[in-house]
Structures are given as structure tokens and as C-alpha cells.
Amino acid sequence: MVEEVEAELEHACALLALDEDPHVRRKITDLVLAVLKDTKVLPPVEEVRRKVRTHEDLNPTATVAEWMTEFLRRKRKIDQTTRRSYEAHIRLYFTPCSPGVNRQAVGSGCGVPR
Fold it and tell me: 102 phi and psi, to 5 degrees?
């Protein structure tokens, strides 16, 4: 029993050690809490490491509109007119057409639901 608890603690510490940025650690913590709530098991370290390394959104409950806004915020090297166009599309099309639609419910292929 003690060994299992120590292993879980080491697993949680390994997850938090994936990045030193407090903002990223907070997102990792939110992800861990959400996964624990749903599955009662900590997420695999390698899966979270991949998400952190590729700057994938760690919020499993993010809506499509929230994810699109976050995507645009992270985009650094785009022209100002392109940014304005993306902002308009998010505001006019994605946000009104997908209120409350969870990003995880949308597949990676052309919006096909999983």
C-alpha cells in the first residue's frame, strides 16, 4: 500500500517537473485534476510531455472557441492583417456556431466528431 502511494506521488511529481514555467505547471495541474476526476488515474507522463513539448492545449474541457482564441494568441509570426482576419473568423463564425462544443469532441480530421 505504501509503495503504491509513493509510486503515485512520484508520478505526480514527474508530471509537474515537465516544465518550470508556473503557468504551464498550473495547466498541467488542471489537466491532472480533470483526468483524475474522469478516470481516477493519473495521465501518462509521456502523453503530457508530448503535449507540453508541442504546446498542445492542456485543457481537456476547452471549447472550440476557447481553443481557437488560444491558438491565435500563441501564433507569433503572422501578418497583422492575417491576425485580424483570423480574429474576425473566430468571433463571427466559430464562437457563435460552436457555443459550448468541447474541443475533445471534435476529431482531428476536418471537424469529424470522434
Answer: -70, 135
